[in-house]
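Question: Hello, beginner here. Any chance you could explain the protein record under this note? Any guidance would be welcome.
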Amino acid sequence: LSPASSCPVSRRLLRLRTMSCCCGEVEKDPEEEVKADGQELKQGDDADPQYGPAPNRGCTDAWCLLVLLAAWGVYLAVTFAGMVDGNPQKLAMPRDYQGAYCDVETNWNNGPNLKGFSKLSYTMNATSSTDMIVKQLMCSSAVEQAMTQGTSPILQTQDERQDYLCECCKIPCQKCSGSLQVGGDLTSVSGIQEVISSKLADLRGMTNPANLFDPSGSNGNVFQDMWSEATKFFNQVCLKDCNTDFSAANTTVTGGADSPRYWDYTMSDDDSMKKFFDALKQSGPQEIKD
């Protein structure tokens, strides 16, 4: 074997060196020039492979080391500043649906004190869970009559009435591809009181809890597949432990089990139906509001 064929390492280094160039002309290695001329390598030549890479190679861009050291310095300064002014515990603790850190006393934006609440769990998202029920109410014939008809409708202008009817897909409009499926129409105030009250009773657990997931129950199959949409129907919250007694958590502090907590529904601010819900809540017939 010739000296050149006995040292594949230098050829690999040459290939790597050639491939690393991104612009300009590649400076040829003496070994490469000798091979191009068809000459045989001799011991002692600059390109003699027994000495490894050609000796004309050297360190380049050494000033980049200064930039790297400066970057390390900035990184360390930021890290120390964060340790002094921040809370390293937040790097490991889970966060609830509002962004507050579990088991942290001081949360961002004057958030809640969650010291001692170190476990992350799921509780029902009341807004999403009641959304379909509220839209069935809002788009019922009985509410439509109060909103758009009569001598003194709740919505005073034609544009407001058109927007409301569009939200309920009662007229052709761009956002609708068909009628809004909300569980059926409610044509009278007595129908609203009966159907809506029955659905909310199942949702609040005032009847057999199995009714909520029964397709023949008041809510139909709305909640039958709720487990496949966990992020929609449930919120991540911080709890003290994994054995929380929700029957006690859902009561007032002083009233005990006979004094359940009540929650007043408010439609989400980004819901386009909100302005019409607020109008009904403020100016609607008392029998509907009750």
In short: Strands lie at 119-124, 234-239. The mean pLDDT is 77. Residues 63-85 form the longest helix (23 residues).
